[in-house]
Amino acid sequence: MSRDDPKKIAERQAALNYHEFPRPGKLEIRATKPMATGRDLSRAYSPGVADACLEIEKNAADAFRYTAKGNLVAVISNGTAVLGLGDIGAQASKPVMEGKAVLFKKFAGIDCFDIEVNETDPEKLADLVCRLEPTFGAVNLEDIKAPDCFVVERICRERMGIPVFHDDQHGTAIVAAAAATNALRVADKRFEDIKVVALGAGAAGIACLKMLIVMGVARENITMLDSKGVVHTKRNNLTAEKAEFARETEMRTVMDAMEGADLFLGVSGPGLLTQEMVRKMAPHPIIFALANPTPEIMPEEAREASPDALIATGRSDYPNQVNNVLCFPFIFRGALDAGATQINDEMKVACVEAIAGLARAPASAELGAAYQGERLAFGPDYLIPKPFDPRLLPTIAVAVAKAAMDSGVATRELDLDAYRAGLQTQVYRSALIMRPVFEAARQSQRRIVFAEGEETRILRTVQAMSEELTGSAVLVGRPEVIESRIEREGLSIKAGRDFELVNPESDERYRDYWTTYHDILARDGVTPDLAKAILRTNNTAIAATMVRRGEADSMICGTVGQYLWHLNYITQVLAEGELHPVGALSLVILDQGPLFVTDTHVNTEPTAEQLADAVIAAARHVRRFGIAPKVAICSGSQFGNLDSRSGRVARGAVALLDAAQVDFEYEGEMHSDAALDPDLRERLFPGNRLTGKANVLVYTSTDAAGAARNLLKSVSNGLEVGPILMGMGNRAHIVTPGVTVRGLLNIAALAGMPVSSYG
Ligand SMILES: NC(=O)C1=CN([C@@H]2O[C@H](COP(=O)(O)OP(=O)(O)OC[C@H]3O[C@@H](n4cnc5c(N)ncnc54)[C@H](OP(=O)(O)O)[C@@H]3O)[C@@H](O)[C@H]2O)C=CC1
Ligand SMILES: CC(=O)C(=O)O
Ligand SMILES: [Mg+2]
Fold it and tell me: Belongs to which family (predicted)?
């Protein structure tokens, strides 16, 4: 595709718009402490700030205690080797450095200042970097050309007491070594035997080759090339780094070097590898064309020249993205948390092993959600994890911190299990609040039946359940469809071992199921023929019947279809005695904390009695999360000021709660803002019974509750757990079609809770 291609032009414009709007750039700085009152001001600034300064003056290490230093990394460049764009200068490198800072933050919660410096003298640049030590917990050097980068890095490492890491060297080398480890497994070759050709003898090239030697490649099996051709012993003026790899050889060109090569490592520039060169490689060759943004050869061309090649690039739009983004956020996380004084070889090797191992482990739930439709099973097109793999942070950071502790460069001893759990919490915002639920679920052995068992998200949930929960799963669906989807998604779950199957088309229990269904509904107009037809075609009815028969403890449905359609069958089959649907409760996890909203789905316009029942049920559920309920009954009316339906129902519910003498805080009726703002509420109704912010918002119609839930999710970036079907004794839950795999796993954990702790 040429640069003038309309699609290319549109893509370029989209990238520019991304950078320009709604405000220029990709970063901002946010305060982490309140600055709302004069008291805040006097603590954050003069005079209070002086106390923090004096403590640090006495003990420099206290900078990690009283300032942001411990989580602050400098991303520093002089713009002399920016991606494969070359020496475009410090100013033009800023989008890349801002981008690295965003990746540090998003993937590992690390704050960065991007620092672009007009300084091409490596010693002066190093001096400048060293002087920045008081500000930062670590330094990431970026896109500084070779050989200058070696000088800058060496001086900084010698003089600084914090980790200094040159991303283009070591980040790239770590990820390339991990990908090579896995590619060799697939190709059934060994580091010790392979012939390597490296095109590019700069920062990335030199570091990658050094790492390959650590992995077992023989130095004499490496041919290095730079812009002047093969690096050989007869060349003059080689830098010390290149001289280390100079070979005594008559080969001069890439074409010469490629004869019989097993691994091509391209870290040079765009389009430098031809199909003819690829054809000269050994069988089952490995081609890493890592130049950014345009690789040495495009994967489709390489594939055409060598159909059995294993191919990787640095780009996200092709399989096998070998890019240092898989390394730098996570290696820094581990180093910072262990208080490491440097990033040493042991930490790098731990990182290689952790990354390579992740690609070989079954893909996780979130990963499947992030990369829907892609095959994520270890093999030629999945040699290396994806950057959005949520396992990267806990797995790599823990491995790196452990290596730092074991090799004696850590200044902190971490409890690694607790550390891993903390990182997992950071990745899954729902993990902390869901932890008691998962723990309760792990104590039980409940059987959970999934009505839409063929749905890919359900299969991924079952995979995650096999890793994170102890209960068992039953899938309603056609075995051949389920099997082929498991294979396509690269999952490791197996029928009979990780789940049981109910085939709606031909299950030997079919007769039992339709007769049970008929027995329940014979006096509600359901004939045997109708019962047979429903139990052949309606997976929700099948799942509910299984629960009713005691063959499963709970069911989950709703990934497709309407909530009330599913609820109808659940009510028909499972509502008996005390059990009847009381409402749907959604937990929305916000940056400020959790907020529960009800009734989002069940009683469209509840009566006062129904609303009071929903409040009592919601309070019970909220307590299961270890949270004391503070319920606000929300309406367009506020403390009796409107004679509307909503106001009357809300006031009726409050009166019923008063009569029932419930043991939790509640108040109503009020607007949502008064529920969340105690000062406003106090002005409107001094002495009202609710203390602080409400954490349960109860609405008088599903329209209002649904709107509140959706707004919280979309505008406030809330993460939803639920909806939780209340009143059915944890025997059924109905999710909504937009549910993610993590959302399903959360519901499965709730469904897995024993009824005693379910309350
Ligand atoms: N995928 C990834 O994660 C990463 C990819 N890269 C990519 O690798 C490339 C190099 O980056 P980096 O090492 O930092 O840059 P450097 O400037 O340090 O090195 C570039 C190297 O490429 C060589 N080179 C340039 N043009 C040619 C040519 N026509 N033929 C052969 N060799 C050539 C240079 O040769 P000479 O020494 O003679 O000047 C030099 O050895 C870039 O495209 C970059 O985007 C880099 C880091 C990470
Ligand atoms: C990925 C990266 O750091 C580079 O291409 O320079
Ligand atoms: Mg770079």
Answer: In the N-terminal section; belongs to the malic enzymes family.
